[in-house]
Design a protein that fits this description.
single chain, alpha+beta, 6-stranded mixed sheet, 10 helices
């Protein structure tokens, strides 16, 4: 007879076993009491989808296809999302191939600029362009027809020549494979840039399509230019033959005058620098003031009848500016120097010195003597001999003395005495 202790042990054992089995079932298959969110998509064709196939978001598995229903002209596919998974609103549904053997998957691809708010439970996902991939049977049939259309003899020749071409080039093939691996790594590293490039590609192509008339005109102009150059090929040959002589002469001219050209460029640079800043501001002020002056003149001028004259026919809208002329002039006479003074001497500049030597110096007018500076005059005065007067004889001053001061010629005040 089983005692109570054994019965208690059996009850505890079966209870623990039941709990462990239930935990395993919930862990593997999920709790039947938990609610999982679902999404639906209406496709034009099932595309090979079946219940139990995976569903992904941009290639990442997020759930499974729970139901495939036929509705008139569409197929409604229901997606059961994994626990805790949300999908943004900016996605489009399309059927893709999950493996090389042809298993399909419903992928929710993100759309550029789409909303990032999560879709609610039971929401309908819009369908993208070309949501159904080509049927694998049609692809295989087309590939088979292409292979059968190839001539077997020519194909054997191509394969033989390809084998001969790669024979003994294992190192080159290994380098090519290594380079392709590097390129693949770079592409993966620049995935964000490539996605941005693909997103910006359609607008760029649209712009090119809009510019197709201009591109067509440019190609026509290029064709005409090519035709003109072809017609003038003899002249082009002559130009190329004589171009060497021209370049030689030009090179000689530049080498012979490089010092002067260097000085000229430097002086033009200085002039341009002087015209900047305050000088440019003063020039702008002068132009504005000039405009205001002539604006006042236009306001004073009046329009009236003009008689025909040798310079033009008569016109009723001639612009007249009235002036007051007094004959003889009522203003004071101009003043003059006594004796009259000549023109100011012109100081010639020294030769410019640059990295290529001295350039041409300044040239004065015929008969001009260069002006001496103050230091040269002082040196000449110091070099003159000193004259001594004779003692006992009064020095006589030549000229008239005691002439009162008064206005000189043309109104200039004269000195007290004239020497």
């Amino acid at each position: 007879m089983i005692n109570r202790r054994i019965i208690a042990n059996l009850v505890v054992f079966f209870t623990l076993a039941t709990l462990l089995v239930g935990y395993g079932v919930v862990t593997l298959f999920g709790s039947p009491f938990d609610h999982q969110d679902t999404l639906v998509a209406d496709l034009p064709d099932a595309g090979g989808l079946r219940p139990g196939f995976s569903a992904s978001h941009d290639g990442v598995v997020i759930g499974t296809v729970s139901k495939v229903e036929l509705r008139r002209d569409e197929v409604r596919v229901t997606i059961q999302l994994d626990k805790g998974v949300t999908v943004p609103k900016g996605v489009e549904a399309r059927v893709v191939r999950a493996s090389a053997v042809g298993e399909q998957r419903l992928d929710l691809a993100s759309v550029a600029g789409g909303s990032q708010e999560p879709l609610p439970d039971g929401a309908e996902v819009p369908v993208g362009a070309d949501p159904i991939p080509p049927d694998i049977a049609d692809v295989l049939a087309t590939t088979t027809g292409l292979i059968e259309a190839l001539p077997a003899k020519d194909l054997n020749t191509v394969i033989h020549e390809a084998a001969v071409g790669v024979d003994g080039r294992s190192d080159d093939l290994r380098s090519i494979t290594r380079s392709l691996t590097t390129v693949s790594d770079d592409v993966v590293a620049d995935d964000a840039s490539l996605r941005k490039l693909l997103a910006n590609g359609p607008p760029v192509l649209d712009d090119f399509s809009d510019m197709s008339p201009e591109v067509h005109d440019a190609l026509d102009n290029t064709q005409q230019l090519t035709r003109i150059l072809a017609d003038r090929k003899g002249d082009l040959v002559d130009l190329l033959d004589k171009g060497a002589d021209l370049s030689e002469v030009g090179d000689r001219v530049l080498l012979d005058n490089r010092a002067n050209l260097t000085c000229l460029v430097g002086e033009l640079t200085d002039i341009t620098g002087e015209l900047q800043g305050a000088a440019l501001k003063d020039l702008d002020t002068a132009l504005k003031t000039n405009t205001q002056f002539f604006g006042l003149v236009d306001k004073v001028a009046v329009r009236g009848q003009a008689q025909p004259n040798p310079y033009g026919p008569g016109r009723p809208d001639q612009l007249w500016l009235r002036t007051s002329l007094l004959l003889p002039p009522q203003t004071p006479a101009a003043s003059a120097y006594a004796p009259p003074r000549g023109h100011l001497p012109v100081t010639t500049g020294a030769a410019c010195t640059g990295p290529y030597g001295k350039g041409g110096g300044g040239h004065a007018a015929a008969g001009h003597r260069p002006r001496q500076d103050r230091h040269q005059r002082d040196r000449r005065r110091r070099s003159r001999p000193v004259r001594h007067r004779r003692v006992g004889r009064p020095h006589r001053r030549r000229g008239r003395v005691g002439r009162p001061a008064g206005p000189g010629p043309a109104g200039i005040a004269g000195p007290v005495g004239e020497v």
